[in-house]
Design brief:
The protein is 63% helix and 0% strand. By secondary structure, the protein is mainly alpha-helical. α2 runs antiparallel to α3. The longest helix is centred in the middle third of the chain and has 21 residues. The protein is globular.
Length: 107
């Protein structure tokens, strides 16, 4: 437990390579959730995954390894993987790290 906390608070070791997910499979599963298949939902998902991948690819080398590792686990929960989930997690972790660094409990 202490090691996990230390890893999350560690300095800016950088992430390795951007993971390779299968957006086509992810979006196909998403488009089929309602029992049918939605071309519209597939298209929205696929374009969003591409956009999120492109943004992450440009930023990846500057993302702390602890955040990248945690968020890769989040993005692959349930199998597969999603660049959208990966990006949301990374953005949230970076924002909250900054917010929490000066947090003080007020009595």
């Amino acid at each position: 437990m202490i090691l996990i906390a230390a890893a999350l608070l560690a300095g800016p070791a950088t992430a390795g390579e951007l993971p390779r997910f299968d957006p086509k499979s992810h979006c196909t599963r998403l488009a089929s959730l309602s029992g049918g298949y939605s071309e519209g939902l597939f298209g929205i998902c696929f374009r969003s995954e591409q956009s999120d991948y492109d943004e992450l690819k440009a930023r990846w080398s500057g993302i702390a390894e602890s955040i990248a590792t945690h968020c890769q686990r989040v993005a692959t929960m349930g199998g597969g993987g999603s660049y959208g989930l990966l990006k949301i997690c990374i953005d949230s972790e970076i924002r909250e790290r900054e917010t929490n660094s000066g947090a003080e409990f007020k009595f």
